[in-house]
Amino acid sequence: MKKITLPLIAIALATPGAALAQSDDAGPYIAVDIGAALPSDSSNSGATTAEIPETDDFGAIPSGTPVGWETEFDNGLSFSGAAGYDFGNGFRAEVQAFYTEYDVDTHSGVTVSGANIDAVDVAVLTRGEADDDNPTVGAVVADGQGDISSYGAFLNVFYDIETGAGIEPYIGGGIGYVETDIDYSPSGVTIADASDGGFAYQAIAGASFNLSDNAQIFAQYTYRDSLDDVEVPLTLLPADLEIETGQSIVSAGVRIKFGS
Question: The whole model's pTM is what?
Answer without folding.
Answer: 0.85
